[in-house]
């Protein structure tokens, strides 16, 4: 376990960023995000998926085909190993259902990361097991 780990999550990192934090099945871990990034060259996004266009709040943009469908583009997401992506937003606590390293990413279409800019900071903390 240990203390929290902070990593930089570039909005252009299509495969996400490995955090170095490994969780075991049953562990409780928290991921939180901060910062802002540019989505597709036209929108400013924040870890919770809110977007701003030309400095004005424009809600959440939820196109089809994102790495994690059904949640906004630009949302901070995470997964364990090669498991499914999970919605994080600004902060979320999970109980691990598998063992593996936590990866964090900027939610976008798998082929569309190249036109993004900026980065988030993500903090990951493994709080240990409930076994």
UniProtKB/TrEMBL annotation:
GO terms, molecular function: carbohydrate binding
Keyword annotations of the record: Lectin
InterPro entries in alphabetical order: Galactose-bd-like_sf, PA-IL
Pfam family of the protein (one): PA-IL
Gene3D superfamilies according to UniProt: Galactose-binding lectin (2.60.120.430)
Domain of life: Bacteria
Protein name in UniProt: Pa-i galactophilic lectin-like protein
Lineage of origin: Bacteria, Bacillati, Actinomycetota, Actinomycetes, Pseudonocardiales
